[in-house]
Fold this protein.
Amino acid sequence: MQIAKQPGSPKAMSRMMGYLVNVRPRSAELIVDEMLAICSDIDRWREKKAVG
């Protein structure tokens, strides 16, 4: 399943699981949107850490 592969870290997967359990989204679109938001947060964090 792509949703399980996409986050790429245990912390990101934990955030995704928390979202699924607490929010209980009613559509695949909401799940994908949250997954993309989490991945975006991680990318911003990595960029910030790389810059200094």
